[in-house]
Automatic annotation (TrEMBL):
Gene Ontology biological process terms, A to Z: recombinational repair
EC number: 5.6.2.4
A single GO molecular function term of this UniProt record: ATP binding
Organism: Halobacteriovorax marinus (strain ATCC BAA-682 / DSM 15412 / SJ)
The keyword DNA-binding is annotated on this UniProt entry: no
Protein name, as recorded: DNA 3'-5' helicase
Xref: InterPro entries: DExx_box_DNA_helicase_dom_sf, DNA_helicase_UvrD-like_C, DNA_helicase_UvrD/REP, P-loop_NTPase, UvrD-like_ATP-bd
Keywords: ATP-binding, Helicase, Hydrolase, Isomerase, Nucleotide-binding
Binding site for ATP: A26, G27, A28, G29, S30, G31, K32, T33
Keyword ATP-binding carried by entry: yes
Record-annotated UvrD-like helicase ATP-binding domain positions: 5-288
Residues of the UvrD-like helicase C-terminal domain: 289-568
Catalytic activity entry: Couples ATP hydrolysis with the unwinding of duplex DNA by translocating in the 3'-5' direction; ATP + H2O = ADP + phosphate + H(+)
Amino acid sequence: MISLSGLNAAQRQAAETIDGPLLILAGAGSGKTRTITYRIAHMVDNLALPQKSILAVSFTNKAAKEMRERIIGLLGKKKARGLTMATFHSLGVKILKKEISKLGYHKNFSIYDSADQSAIMREALKSFKAGKQFDQKIIMAKIGKLKNQGIGPDDYADSEYFDDEDPYDHATHYVYDYYQDKLKFYNAIDFDDILFLTVKLFTDFPEVAKQYSEQFRYIMIDEYQDTNNLQFDLITGLTSTHNNLCVVGDDDQAIYSFRGADITNILSFERMFPGAKVVKLEENYRSVSSILELANKVIKENINRRDKTLWSQRKSSHTPLLWSMANTEHEAEVISDEISKHQSNGGHLGDIAVLYRSNTQAQPFEEVFRMNQIPYTIIGGQKFYEKKEVKDLMAYLTVILNPKDQLQLRRILNIPNRGIGSRTLEKYLEKSEQEDISLYEALYRYPDLDPNREKHIRDFTGIITKFKEVFDLQSLPEAISKLVEDIGFYEFIDKSYDSAKQVERRRNDVNFFIESAERFVKYNGAHATLKNFVEKLLLQDNQDTEEDEDDDIRKNEVTMMTFHSSKGLEFDTVYMVGVEEESLPHKNTIKNGEDISEERRLCYVGITRAQQKLIMTYCKERKLYGKDTPRFISRFINELDKDGFCVHQDRTTFGHMTEEEADDYKKGFFANLIDGLDDDSMF
DNA sequence: TCGTCCGGCGTTTTT
DNA sequence: CGCCGGACGA
């Protein structure tokens, strides 16, 4: 029996409402995960609802994993078995693996990321008359939007989004058609297709939707404010036979509209699901009240929102600070000094985060932190599977699985260089078109198309054939190592980069790739097939490929990341840097005359990450693209009546310090200066 | 086939 | 300022 007495009244009400539509409006730090994990535990343990009938969907594998672990903590492993915790995409893939043949694809489809997408669209645009006049990015964005509306290439011309007068729309139509055709021919689907095709499956085959809906009689959706229209349609399909839908989210933290998230999903939940119950979680267990007061004040400027007021029992003497800095180097130095002070007072660096609007802002901090020997870690940036060498190896694995995948095949045809260049490729592409066979089949059947290249072609197809078998017989990491060796991949890396540092980094990427295969095998045993491995990597499902269990205990490192990446996390001390006009709100949002409320929400997300201390900074001048540009405080802070909410201090002078502090600071400052001179005196 | 040079451009990104 | 993609020449 699970006791719900540890929940507050609102949380408890949310956990006990099981039937019918339910919206849990969970403010930042209000114990959302706690509430939903207790809700599930309650359903299983107290109400004896079958595990198999419960589905919880989140956006990230990390969130899904955390939920699973916490439920196991409540129920134990045995009782938690049979619950489905998925991401939208992993759920889609799971369904498509079983059903995709109904849509005319084969079961071993490849999954394409946005780089692959872009490559095919570029090709499509090239083949379009006067394709040069069009910006591929705009077309790609249009297609992305169409997919998110559930509009396929065939429906486009009749849709409200198609303007017959607009040449761009004609180009888009052509590219969309070409693109989707190619994908099918390659037996590939892109990230959007995972949802698009699942929804199509549900629409074209309502009996399939019915079957899944009957299986999952209780559905929970996390971060509901971030769902897009396709995800909404997917949810509708899954609830086609019942309406036991519980969604959890916070409209004030909706920051992904640029990716197609539609905030109206959460704003009009009751209209979409009549009879819905709404529970607000407003007590915050994270931040001291002064920080929450500032957060509330900032977000109340937005008009179209569900009214909420976060409150906290935690009092503190700290008032959020707003510091003005001279420029980006100064900003980094002052913060670095503060962190050094914290460190020498015995403070833990894992308690500190530096948050910014864009990744480029991390650079000056990196430099200064390195110089002052402050350990740090940067979250975000390039994804592991997006690194070139990893993509190359993944392409090999993909082709071994799905030789129809022309894109991946073309990627590796001449990697490492084996004298099969664009001329030869052209010939084979022509051949494959003539005979209506895949590129791989053309290579395999006609190795002597150009007698000069015959050996190279045979070598290549030989590798693929051989490794189909190798991967069957040997373990995943063994087979990959052998592949790396056989194709001379390390030697290829060595000669591809001049700097030893680059070579080492890339070699390490390859090693890490092999290691992740080892871990994958260790965790998945018999399920550790090549296909599952490639799929997991693509879906960023690193839960057992990356080292685990350091989530609750942070390393002794300062964490740096974007406001976006910080959603859901918390830190004792938060530095929000570059709180400036044209950064937050971002200049493109201002320029386009767009609604800036999402930028304000981003500011709100940043503020609500802080538990004890919040310091916001802005620079009077910032170096942008090599030019010094004057900057001003963000309107989000400047527009407020700041008295009592936030203390404005000018860090370019010592005016904010006591005399003693200023003296200490100057001493340190001049000492640094002299150190600097010593270094420079070498010249 | 492959390497070099030039010009354009520059947010955020859970999959 | 620095990266990436396309053009062009060896």
